[in-house]
Specification:
Strand content of chain B: 5-15%
Pfam families (chain B): ThiF, UBA_E1_SCCH
CATH superfamily of one domain in chain A: NAD(P)-binding Rossmann-like Domain
Strand order of the largest sheet of chain A: 3-2-1-4-5-6-11-12
CATH topology of one domain in chain A: Rossmann fold
Oligomer: heterodimer
Radius of gyration of chain A: 29 Å
Strand order of the largest sheet of chain B: 3-2-1-4-5-6
Organism (chain B): Trichoglossum hirsutum
Helix content of chain B: 40-55%
CATH topology of the largest domain in chain B: Arc Repressor Mutant, subunit A
Number of strands of chain B: 8
CATH architecture of one domain in chain A: 3-Layer(aba) Sandwich
Pathway (chain B): Protein modification; protein sumoylation
Number of helices of chain B: 16
Distance between the termini of chain B: 67 Å
Structural class of chain A: alpha/beta
Largest interface: A-B, 59 and 43 residues
CATH class of one domain in chain A: Alpha Beta
Structural class of chain B: alpha/beta
Number of strands of chain A: 12
Shape of chain B: elongated
Largest sheet of chain B: 6 strands, mixed
InterPro entries (chain B): ThiF/MoeB/HesA, ThiF_NAD_FAD-bd, Ub-E1_IAD_1, Ub_act_enz_dom_a_sf, UBA_E1_SCCH, Ubiquitin-activating_enz, UBQ-activ_enz_E1_Cys_AS
Order of helices and strands of chain B: HHEHEHEHEHEEEHHEHHHHHHHH
Strand content of chain A: 5-15%
Largest sheet of chain A: 8 strands, mixed
Helix content of chain A: 40-55%
GO biological process, one term (chain B): protein sumoylation
Number of helices of chain A: 24
CATH architecture of the largest domain in chain B: Orthogonal Bundle
C-alpha cells in the first residue's frame, strides 16, 4: 500500500539473496513481519525424550528468528533417536541440548543458537533471565510448581508463553498472551468486501459518478456497457433518492425494488443479450448498500478501558484507536480502506475511480493523524513521535483490527492427597455451546483435553519426569485421579466422561508417556505457526488452547479461562 | 526396544505392518521433506522418492533437508542422503525423474502398499491419481497454499478420486511454463495475449498479471534467454507494415524460437518436444482457405485456417494487386497501429494497441496465434468462442500509477 501510494513506482531491483531465500514467506507476512521475526529471541524449556519442542524450534529457525536458547539437562537416550531426527546412534549419552542446538544451527546460518544444561529450576532462582526472550516455549513434562513460576513471571512481564504437550496420538498446547495484545494486520478473508461508501459518497466520488454517467441513455453500446458498476449504482441511487425524499433504499424490499431499477437500465438488444457491468451492479445491491455499521471487533476496541482512559504512557496503538474513534464519532464511518474491486470498465475510468478512492483514504488517514496530535496535546504528551505508518495501517484495516485479552497460563496441579484438582482451571466455549453440550457432543475433544490435564496432574503427583511405564497398571492408577469433579462442575454424565477418559488414558499410557514423531512434528508445526503470528503480530492467533486428536485427525480450538473447574 | 519403543507401544502389533511396508513418495519439496522425515522416523520399511527438481535458494526456508551447498543438486538424491541418516533401519530409494516417465508404469506402482503425493502441480497430481486407480494402490494426496493445506485419502472403489471434482484452474503461471514449456491450451492463450500481442502491438510488459515470477530465480539462465528472445522480437516490430512482416514474425516465433527450445534436450526428456512450423508449406495449404473462416467461431480451426486468420496468405501480394480484401488479423492490427502512430503528434507518447476480448481484431490474433502454438507443442486447439471465454476480462491495474 505504501508503495502504491507513491506517485511513481520505484524501479524494480534485483532481489537480495536473503529476499530470495525468504521469498515464499515474505508473501505471507511481508517485510515488516520478517523484521519482527528476525528480532525474535525464543526460549525452549524441555526435558525428557520428546520431540515437540525441537520440532517447533525447527519451524522457527527455518524462517529466521534472531536466536534461540534450549534449556534441557537431559542426555540423549535410544528412545530419543526414534522421535527426534536431530539425534542418531552416535549421539546417545551426549547432552541433548548441545546436539540439537548444533543441528538446528545448520538449518539456518542466519540464526544464533545456544543451550543451557542447568535444570530450569536452578535457572529460575534468577527469573529475570527470562526477560532476555520475546517468546517462551515449554514442552511437557515439567514439574507443576516450576511451570507456575514461569507462568507468573511471563504474565507479569507480558511475555507470550506456550505450553505444549504431545503424548502418543494426542497433543495440546495453550498460549498465554499478554493482558492486552492488539493485532492490526489480521489479514481478513479476501471475500470480505471493502466498504465503498455508496450510500454516502464524498463530493469527489459523486462528481466522478455524475461525469461518467452523464448522458447514459444516449451512449453507444460500448460506452454504456463499460460504465463501472460502482458509478452506475451511484447514478441510480441519485434517481432513487429523487423519488424517495432523499433517502437511500434501506429495507430488503426497497433494495429489491432498487435492484429492479438498476436491472431495467441494462441494454439487452445487443450481441451479448445483456451487459456485464449492469449484472455486477445488480449483484452488488444487497451487499454494498448497507449503512455503515461498526464491526464488533472495532467496537470492542473503542470500548476498551485502554482506549477510554488514555494516559501519557499508553501504547501507540491506543492513541491511534482513540483518534480513529474520534473520526468515527464525527463522520459516522471508519476511515476508508481505499481499494476498489475489479470490475468491467474502461481502463481509464477504472484508474480514475481508483485514484478517487486512494485520495480519500489518504485524506481520512491524515485526519486521523491530526486527531491524534490533538489527543496527545490534550494529555500533555511531550513526545513528538508521530507514527504515520501505524496510523496508515490502522486506518486501512480499521474494520478488522483486533485485540486479545491474554491470560495467565493455568497450571493443572495434584492436590495434597493426590486427588485430581484443577486449581484456577476453566474452559470457555463458543457462546453457542454450553460446557455440558461440549462434553456430550461425541465430536468434542473436551474429554480428551480433560484427560490430558489429568495425565499432567498424575505425572506430577509421581516422581518428576517419570511417566508410568507399565501399560497395564497405568490406567487404573490414573483413573483414581479421574476428573470426576471436573465432570460435576461442567454438568455432564460422570460415568460417560470416565468411560471416555479411560480409553484415552489407556492409549496415553500405552505410549509409555512418549510422543510419536509424526504427531510431535505436526504439533510443532501448529505451535510454530501460532508463534509466528504472535511474533509478527499478524493474522489471528489461536486464543488460547488447541487440542489435537491424531486418531480422529481432529483439531479443536477453544478459550480456556479462569475458575471454571473450581469447586463451588 | 530402544528406537522403536514409542511407535511399537502405541501401535502394538500393527507396527509390523509399517516396518514391512513399501511406500512411494512423489515430490521432495515443502511437504515432501517433512513427510519423508516423518515416514523415516516412524519406521516405514522401504521408501521410494521421486522428484524432478533441483534445489534452489528459495527452497531453503522450509525444505529443511537442503542446505546452501546443495543448491542446483537434485532434490530426490539429496533428500535421500540426508534423511537416510535419521533411521538406519529404513531402506531409501531415490529417482531424479519425472513421475510421468513411462518407466514408472502400472506394474511399478503396484509394487507399493501406499503412495503419497506431495506435488506442486495439477497435471502430475492427476497422473499419479490415474496410475494409483489403475494399479489399485491407495493414495494420500496433499497440498498447501499459504496458510492453508489439505489432505485427501483416495482408494479405488471406496472414496472419490482426485479428478472426481473439477479443480479450479490457476490464474497465474510461471514464466517458463508460458514461454518455454506450455502443456495446456491456457498456457498458449496467455502467451499469445500477454507476450506476443504486447511485444508486437503494445507496451511490452514483464509484469502481465498472469505471470507468476516466483520460480524465476530457479530458472535464471532460461529467463535470460527468454529476455533476449523478446528483444529480438521487438526488433522485428520495427519493420511493421513491410510486405514480409508477417513472414518474419511467423518464422521467428514458430520457427527459430522453437528450434532453440528444441535444442534444450533436458527439457524434453519427459515431454513431447515442440515441432516448428514451416511458413511456406502451410501457406501453400492455406491457399484454399477462405478468409470468412473467422466467422466460424464455434469449432476449432485447422492448421491452415489458423494460419489464414493469423498471417498473410502466400499469394498476398498478388491478391493485393487484384484489389482483394486482405483479412488476416496481423495485418489489420498492423494497419491500426500505424494509423494511430501517423495521427499522433510529435512528442506524444508512441501509441499502442491494447488487448480487448470484445475487439475482434485483437481476439482473432490471439486465438490464431495461441492455436498455432498449441499445434507446435502438440496441445489441443480451441475455438475462437472458447478462447474468448478463457480470457480474463480486463487487465488489473491496481498500483500501476
Amino acid at each position: 500500500m505504501d508503495d502504491s501510494l507513491e506517485d511513481s513506482p520505484s524501479p524494480p531491483q534485483e532481489p537480495s539473496s536473503k529476499e530470495k531465500k525468504y521469498d515464499r514467506q515474505l508473501r505471507m507476512w511481508g517485510s515488516t513481519g520478517q523484521v519482527a521475526l528476525e528480532s525474535a529471541r525464543v526460549l525452549l524449556i524441555q526435558a525428557g525424550p520428546n520431540a515437540v519442542g525441537i520440532e517447533t524450534l525447527k519451524n522457527l529457525v527455518l524462517p529466521g528468528i534472531e536466536r534461540y536458547t534450549i534449556v534441557d539437562p537431559s542426555v540423549v537416550t535410544e528412545e530419543d533417536t526414534g522421535v527426534n531426527f536431530f539425534v542418531d546412534g552416535e549421539s546417545i549419552g551426549q547432552l541433548k541440548a548441545k546436539v540439537c542446538c548444533q543441528m538446528l544451527q545448520e538449518l539456518n546460518p542466519d540464526v544464533d543458537g545456544e543451550y543451557l544444561t542447568e535444570p530450569i529450576e536452578s535457572l529460575l532462582r534468577n527469573p529475570s533471565f527470562l526477560l532476555g526472550y520475546s517468546l517462551i516455549l515449554v514442552a511437557a513434562p515439567i514439574f507443576s510448581p516450576t511451570l507456575k513460576t514461569i507462568a507468573a513471571y511471563a504474565w507479569e512481564h507480558e511475555l507470550p508463553l506456550f505450553y505444549i504437550h504431545s503424548l502418543g496420538f494426542y497433543s495440546y498446547f495453550t498460549v498465554s498472551l499478554p493482558p492486552c495484545f492488539p493485532v492490526i494486520e489480521t489479514h481478513p478473508d479476501q471475500s470480505v468486501a471493502a466498504e465503498l461508501r455508496l450510500t454516502n459518497p464524498w463530493p469527489e466520488l459523486a462528481a466522478l459518478a455524475k461525469e461518467v454517467t452523464a448522458g447514459l441513455e444516449e451512449m453507444n453500446d460500448h460506452d454504456h456497457g463499460h460504465v463501472p458498476y460502482v458509478l452506475l449504482l451511484l447514478h441510480y441511487l441519485e434517481l432513487w433518492k429523487q423519488d424517495n425524499e432523499g433517502r437511500v433504499p434501506a429495507t430488503y424490499r426497497e433494495k429489491l425494488e432498487f435492484r429492479k431499477l438498476v436491472e431495467a437500465g441494462a441494454r439487452t438488444e445487443n450481441a451479448e443479450g445483456g451487459e456485464e457491468n449492469y449484472e455486477e451492479a445488480a449483484a452488488a445491491v444487497l451487499k454494498s448498500l448497507n449503512p455503515a455499521t461498526l464491526t464488533w471487533s472495532i467496537r470492542e476496541i473503542f470500548q476498551a478501558t485502554e482506549c477510554v482512559e488514555l494516559t501519557t504512557d499508553s501504547p501507540i496503538f491506543w492513541f491511534v484507536a482513540a483518534a480513529v474513534k474520534d473520526f468515527e464519532r464525527k463522520h459516522h464511518v471508519l476511515p476508508l480502506h481505499g481499494s476498489v474491486p475489479d470490475m468491467k470498465a474502461k481502463t481509464a475510468d477504472y484508474i480514475r475511480l481508483q485514484k478517487v478512492y486512494k485520495a480519500k483514504a489518504r485524506q481520512d488517514a491524515a485526519e486521523v493523524l491530526a486527531n491524534m496530535r490533538v489527543i496527545k496535546g490534550e494529555l500533555g504528551c511531550t513526545s513528538e513521535e508521530i507514527y504515520e505508518r501505524v496510523v496508515d495501517d490502522f486506518c486501512r484495516e480499521a474494520a478488522f483490527v483486533r485485540f486479545f485479552r491474554g491470560q495467565r497460563l493455568p497450571v493443572a496441579c495434584g492436590g495434597e492427597d493426590g486427588e485430581f484438582e484443577l486449581a484456577g482451571e476453566a474452559v470457555e466455549h463458543e457462546p453457542t455451546s454450553g460446557e455440558g453440550q461440549a462434553l456430550e457432543d461425541p465430536e468434542s475433544l473436551m474429554p480428551l483435553y480433560i484427560t490430558l490435564l489429568a495425565y499432567d496432574v498424575f505425572i506430577n503427583s509421581r516422581s518428576r519426569n517419570a511417566p508410568p511405564h507399565s501399560p497395564d497398571s497405568g490406567p487404573t492408577t490414573l483413573l483414581n485421579h479421574a476428573p470426576g469433579h471436573a465432570s460435576s462442575t461442567v454438568h455432564t454424565d460422570e460415568q460417560e466422561l470416565s468411560r471416555i477418559a479411560h480409553s484415552i488414558l489407556f492409549r496415553c499410557t500405552r505410549s509409555g508417556g512418549g510422543d510419536l514423531h509424526n504427531i510431535s512434528a505436526l504439533t510443532g508445526g501448529m505451535v510454530a505457526q501460532e508463534a509466528i503470528k504472535v511474533i509478527t503480530r499478524q493474522y489471528v492467533p489461536a486464543d488460547n488452547t488447541v487440542v489435537f486428536d491424531g486418531i480422529r485427525s481432529k483439531v479443536w480450538v477453544f478459550r480456556r479461562t479462569a475458575d471454571m473447574f473450581s469447586r463451588p | 526396544m530402544g528406537r522403536e519403543a514409542y511407535p511399537k507401544q502405541s501401535l502394538g502389533s500393527l507396527y509390523r505392518r509399517i516396518k514391512e511396508s513399501r511406500v512411494l513418495l512423489v515430490g521432495a519439496g515443502g511437504i515432501g521433506c517433512e513427510l519423508l522425515k516423518n515416514l523415516v522416523l516412524t519406521g516405514f520399511g522401504e521408501i521410494h522418492l521421486v522428484d524432478l527438481d533441483t534445489i534452489d535458494l528459495s527452497n531453503l526456508n522450509r525444505q529443511f533437508l537442503f542446505r546452501h551447498e546443495h543448491i542446483k543438486k537434485p532434490k530426490a538424491l539429496v533428500a535421500k542422503g540426508v534423511a537416510g541418516k535419521f533411521n538406519p533401519n529404513v531402506k531409501l530409494e531415490a529417482y531424479h525423474a519425472n513421475i510421468k516417465d513411462p518407466m514408472f508404469n502400472i506394474d511399478w506402482f503396484q509394487g507399493f502398499s501406499l503412495v503419497f503425493n506431495a506435488l506442486d502441480n495439477l497435471e502430475a497430481r492427476r497422473h499419479v491419481n490415474k496410475m494409483c486407480l489403475a494399479a489399485d494402490v491407495p493414495l494420500i494426496e496433499s497440498g498447501t497454499t499459504g496458510f492453508n493445506g489439505q489432505v485427501q485419502v483416495i482408494k479405488k472403489g471406496r472414496t472419490e478420486c482426485y479428478d472426481c471434482n473439477p479443480k479450479e484452474t490457476p490464474k497465474t503461471f510461471p514464466v517458463c511454463t508460458i514461454r518455454s514449456t506450455p502443456s495446456q491450451p491456457i498456457h498458449c492463450i496467455v502467451w499469445a495475449k500477454s507476450y506476443l500481442f504486447t511485444e508486437i502491438f503494445g507496451t511490452s510488459e514483464d509484469d502481465a498479471p498472469e505471470f507468476d515470477h516466483s520460480e524465476d530465480s530457479e530458472n535464471s539462465e532460461e529467463i535470460e534467454k527468454l529476455r533476449q528472445e523478446a528483444q529480438a522480437l521487438k526488433r522485428i516490430r520495427q519493420s511493421i507494415g513491410s510486405p514480409d512482416f508477417a513472414r518474419k514474425i511467423f518464422e521467428k516465433i514458430f520457427g527459430e524460437d522453437i528450434l532453440r527450445l528444441r535444442s534444450m534436450e533436458d527439457m524434453w526428456k519427459s515431454r513431447r518436444a515442440p515441432e516448428p512450423l514451416d511458413f511456406d508449406k502451410i501457406s501453400q495449404q492455406a491457399l484454399v482457405i477462405d478468409t470468412s473462416v473467422t466467422q466460424k467461431d464455434q469449432t476449432a480451426w485447422s492448421l491452415p485456417e489458423n494460419f489464414v486468420v493469423f498471417s498473410d496468405r502466400y499469394d498476398f501480394l498478388e491478391r493485393l494487386r487484384l484489389g482483394e480484401l486482405i483479412n488476416c488479423s496481423l495485418r489489420r492490427l498492423s494497419a491500426r497501429l500505424q494509423d494511430a502512430q501517423a495521427k499522433a503528434a510529435n512528442g506524444d507518447v508512441s501509441p499502442v494497441l491494447t488487448f480487448d476480448k470484445d475487439d475482434d481484431d485483437t481476439l482473432e490474433f490471439v486465438a490464431a496465434s495461441a492455436n498455432l502454438r498449441s499445434i507446435v507443442f502438440g496441445i489441443e486447439t480451441k475455438s475462437k468462442f472458447d478462447i474468448k471465454r478463457e480470457l480474463p476480462r480486463k487487465e488489473l491495474v491496481d498500483g500501476m500509477y
